[in-house]
Design brief:
Blueprint lengths: L7 H19 L5 H14 L1 H30 L8
Helix pairs in contact: 1-2
């Protein structure tokens, strides 16, 4: 898996969110460089867990849709003398 790349605008927004979290929840100031370093760390070390969870969720959603399609096709079947 390649590393996730954010645009400079996305990265700036995420860094601001990290800084806001530190300020509001931890009552600590964190500079932009430190917030960006933290973002890079989480992206590299923790991001794969979130990425994999997203894949599992996507796979489950796709499987549910395929079940719906299977059921829809089954409902279209016409009766014949052959049994399954």
């Amino acid at each position: 898996m390649e590393s996730i790349q954010f645009s400079s605008e996305e990265k700036a927004l995420i860094v601001r969110k990290i800084q806001l979290y530190f300020s509001e929840e931890l009552q600590q100031k964190i500079g932009g460089f430190d917030a960006e370093f933290l973002l890079d760390f989480f992206g590299k070390e923790i991001g794969v867990y979130f990425y994999n969870r997203g894949l599992y969720d996507a796979q489950a959603a796709l499987a549910a849709k395929l079940d719906d399609i299977h059921d829809a096709i089954h409902q279209l079947e016409k009766p014949t003398d052959f049994s399954r």
